[in-house]
Each structure stands twice: as C-alpha cells, then as structure tokens.
From TrEMBL:
<dbReference type="InterPro" id="IPR036968">
    <property type="entry name" value="Enolpyruvate_Tfrase_sf"/>
</dbReference>
<comment type="similarity">
    <text>Belongs to the EPSP synthase family.</text>
</comment>
<comment type="pathway">
    <text>Metabolic intermediate biosynthesis; chorismate biosynthesis; chorismate from D-erythrose 4-phosphate and phosphoenolpyruvate: step 6/7.</text>
</comment>
<dbReference type="GO" id="GO:0003866">
    <property type="term" value="F:3-phosphoshikimate 1-carboxyvinyltransferase activity"/>
</dbReference>
<feature type="binding site">
    <location>
        <position position="354"/>
    </location>
    <ligand>
        <name>3-phosphoshikimate</name>
    </ligand>
</feature>
<feature type="binding site">
    <location>
        <position position="29"/>
    </location>
    <ligand>
        <name>3-phosphoshikimate</name>
    </ligand>
</feature>
<dbReference type="Pfam" id="PF00275">
    <property type="entry name" value="EPSP_synthase"/>
</dbReference>
<feature type="binding site">
    <location>
        <position position="174"/>
    </location>
    <ligand>
        <name>3-phosphoshikimate</name>
    </ligand>
</feature>
<feature type="binding site">
    <location>
        <position position="28"/>
    </location>
    <ligand>
        <name>phosphoenolpyruvate</name>
    </ligand>
</feature>
<feature type="binding site">
    <location>
        <position position="176"/>
    </location>
    <ligand>
        <name>3-phosphoshikimate</name>
    </ligand>
</feature>
<keyword id="KW-0808">Transferase</keyword>
<dbReference type="InterPro" id="IPR013792">
    <property type="entry name" value="RNA3'P_cycl/enolpyr_Trfase_a/b"/>
</dbReference>
<comment type="subunit">
    <text>Monomer.</text>
</comment>
<dbReference type="InterPro" id="IPR006264">
    <property type="entry name" value="EPSP_synthase"/>
</dbReference>
<feature type="binding site">
    <location>
        <position position="28"/>
    </location>
    <ligand>
        <name>3-phosphoshikimate</name>
    </ligand>
</feature>
<feature type="binding site">
    <location>
        <position position="327"/>
    </location>
    <ligand>
        <name>3-phosphoshikimate</name>
    </ligand>
</feature>
<feature type="binding site">
    <location>
        <position position="33"/>
    </location>
    <ligand>
        <name>3-phosphoshikimate</name>
    </ligand>
</feature>
Amino acid sequence: MSGHGEAQPMTARKSGPLKGVAEVPGDKSISHRALIFGAMAVGETHVTGLLEGQDVLDTASAMRAFGAEVARHAPGEWTVNGVGVGGFREPADVIDCGNSGTGVRLIMGTMATSPITATFTGDASLRKRPMGRVTDPLSLFGTRAFGRQGGRLPMTVVGAADPVPVRYALPVASAQVKSAVLLAGLNAPGQTVVIEKEPTRDHSERMLIGFGAELVVEKTAEGNVITLTGRPELRPQRVAVPRDPSSAAFPTCAALIVEGSDIMVPGVSQNLTRNGLYLTLVEMGAEIEFQNPREEGGEPVADLRVKFSPNLKGIEVPEERAPSMIDEYPILSVVAAFAEGTTVMRGVKELRVKESDRIDAMARGLEACGVRVEEDEDTLIVHGLGAGGVPGGAVAKTHLDHRIAMSFLVCGMAAKTAISVDDASPILTSFPIFEGLMTGLGADLARG
Ligand SMILES: O=C(O)C1=C[C@@H](OP(=O)(O)O)[C@@H](O)[C@H](O)C1
Ligand SMILES: C=C(OP(=O)(O)O)C(=O)O
C-alpha cells in the first residue's frame, strides 16, 4: 500500500537484561515467493508461517489482481489457487506494491512474458528505486516498459506476446533481478539461462524445483549458471515458511549489546546465501551457540543461544560475504559501534538503493549518537566505542526504511541515553510483532 499513514515516533531506552525466547515471524523472501509461485501453479498451494507484513500482504493483493485466488484461513495459514504458468489475466487497476522492491520486481518478471499490460506503483520510497535493472533483462524476452525518468515507478509493463528465452549474466549481485528473469523464463519456450558471479539468496531456485520446474544450477568458473526449462506445469505445494534470519538479526544483536542478556532465537536459517551476519558476529567475538541443527521448510536451521558479549572486536567484513548479509549491514553497524576497534564494511554500494540510502541513513544516525563513522560510495567504516560506550541521545531519521528504524531502536536499548526514531511505522512491512517481541524480552521501548 503506498498510502503512508501518520509517522509513528518510537523511543528505546537503556534496557535491563533481555531474557526469553525470540520467535520471529516467517521469512519475507520466501513468503513473497510462496504466493507468486503458488499463483503460477495449477491447483491449491497451502502455506503455513506466511509473514503477514505489509510487503507480503501487498503481493497477496497483486496476485488476486492477476487472477489467482488467495485466502487467509488462520494466522500465517494461507491458500493460493493458481492460474498456471502464462495464465495471468490483465489487472483492472494499478498494482500497488507499497514499500516492497522484492514484490514489484518479482511480479514484473512474472507477468513479463504474458500478453497483458500492467501498471505498477509504490510508496515514496519504492518510487525512488531503480527498476531498469529488471526491465533491461526483461526487454530481451520482448517485454516493453515505460516508467518515469531513471526507470522509476509508476511504470507500465507490456508483456511479450511471443517471448523468446534469454541468456543473461547479472551485472549486479541481486536475487531480485535473478528471480525476475527466472520467473519471466517460466513462460518463454526453451531454456532461459541466468549467470550469477556471486551467489545470492537461492530461494527461487529451491522453490521452483519444489514446484516441479526443470531447473539446474551448475557451479562454474564464471559463477552459478542457472538453466530453467520454460513452460513447465507447476504443481501446487505445501510450503512451511521458515523464520526470517533478517528479522532474527534484531533480537540477536540486541542481546549481544544489552548487558546481562541471554536469549534463545529458534529456527534461524543457516542457508549459506543468508547467514553472513551470523558468521561475522562470531568472528567479532559474539557469544552465540548454534544448537539443534536441522531442516525446517526446506532450509537448514539452528536454534541460537545468544548472550551479552562485552568483548566484541571490530573486523574487516569480507567483501564477498555482502550478498549473504545485504540487509544486515544496518544492524551490524550498530553492533560495530559497541565493539572495540574499527569495523570496515566494503562492497556495500547496493545499500544505497534499498528502501533508503542505508549507508547515509546509518552514518548520519550513528554520528548523531556520538559514533565516529567514515563512508564513501561503496564503504562504511564504524569506529567502535566498546560495550556500553555509545552516548545516544538523538532522534534518528528512518526515511520509510524498516531496517533503519529497528537498528536505531536496538541501538537505544544499549546506549547511555535514549534514542528515538522519527517514524517506526515502516517496521510493519517486515516485522509486525517487533515492538511486542522486544518488550517481551525486556526491552524498554515506547511509542512517542
Ligand atoms: O530476492 C529477495 O527476496 C531479496 C533480495 C535482496 O535484494 P536485491 O536483489 O536488490 O539484492 C534483499 O535486499 C531483499 O530484501 C530481498
Ligand atoms: C531491501 C529489502 O526489501 P525490498 O528490496 O523487498 O524492499 C529489505 O527487506 O531489507
């Protein structure tokens, strides 16, 4: 939904020890895909653990507009009666993807090879984000797109009536672009090939195989070569969405920096394309035990026991790890502020085209909290002040960005003086129970 209601300021104060179990909601990436792939299957897909955040709700509405039947039966329990590959009907109205880059880019890919036209828009944040990275490869199928200057929304996409399959090497490490091309390839005859130099989250590949598509991933010197055979009949599935490791990052990092904390965070994905933050935290000296490794919803997961870690050290984060922790740099930069020494994050320019320019938002907010930060186009460097050393006492601007809002609220739980955010409402896009979950652990979080 692009209508943004009133700003909701929120304040976090230095909190007592966090204790208890942090059961975070379903994975956002997998939730979007469960609805979209379900809409491409013939018959009823049953989803449990669906994230009921606004981003995913907007994708559910979009799937209805394209002709799928989408119904909610209980919290997290949804069904999708799909229309089959190539079965989308033309929506009668504009598709509003709200705040969600994943939603709009994957849906554009899905309709791009059907003979229909759709117009997409989103909120003020999404309307600033580049869509050319998706419409450029879609044009190879024969799709046409007409947006605002710089390839921005609102944008009308005219699907290819007679699509051809494509071979496309990703110029940017992006699972959204990879997925958009694969989804378009579903309704192109023959084989569509996507080549990614650096591995990005692989949920689309795993789930397409689960839904019955013929998809092969070869690891070669040029990177992953993903070959999809077009026009499969996708079979409906039962999808159990695992918890979101990107949401789990917030209680995990809060427990590391709030004195005396000791919490459990169950079911955190250990998928190598998603677990970069957790590797990095361990390298910084975080006290995290990975218990009970197992599989849940097709993903490797573990239960995390996380304790206050007073001896965190700054590190240089390996640049090649960026795709596996791309959404976690904002909260990592907060942990870095409570570490001894300097944390260097290179190869992070993609953060500038997320819901906000996350390098700028973190740098300005941390500076206002008394932390020394350096940045250039592709780098963020945080000079840590050690456990309990962050002065705080600032109001951070969140720029319609849920991860910036949650990062500064976590920072405020451990800083000397309270930290407020100007608008916490974007948190509802990805982690609607954040406030209740964190206060339940003992965080001092209040509206206003
Ligand atoms: O495919 C996905 O589900 C996502 C891919 C990433 O975006 P990019 O593809 O822009 O890197 C990530 O930041 C986003 O939160 C979710
Ligand atoms: C970047 C994100 O999401 P999206 O691109 O889907 O808006 C995110 O959730 O951090």
